[in-house]
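Hi U.,

Before I forget, here's the chain from the pilot set. I'm dumping it here mostly so it's searchable later in email.
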Amino acid sequence: MLLSKAWEIYESDKRIEGFSQQTLKAYKLQALLVIRYFEDVKLETITTIKLKEYLAKSSENLKPSSLAHRIRFIKSLFRWSHEEGHILKNPAAKLKEPKVGKRIPKFLTEREIEHLREACNTPMEKALFEFMFSTGCRIGEIVSLDKNRINWSNRSAIVLGKGDKEREVYFTI
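Structure:
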């Protein structure tokens, strides 16, 4: 089976499994890079050594976290290919991710928050900013918020987060 065909079937399977659009989009980029590098060869011709060469050549300007993402995709694709019986041996099984240091979250200063608050021109912008600020919700969570999931009496809302996980958030008026 060609690498491109394996990617098509893999993507369909992951879509059915409920992977998010963002994950599938990121995986598609990784798949295109792998296919371009190996020139759409048969899956069984890709060895562990060839994968390591690819990772070494393609990772020169990558942060460890980006390289780790690339490796996770490759491991996932080849594990799936092996489990589905498209290849006899998984060449990515022994690939290791680089150590990634923990990042300290970035935050806004009080002055930056006030600048953002002052930049809101309409009541809608002000309400959205205050909701985002008081709940800590991501923009995507706010965009997909169902107005029927807002409880005005206790100032809470049920938002759909990453991985389609629901959580309750509280806001100020």
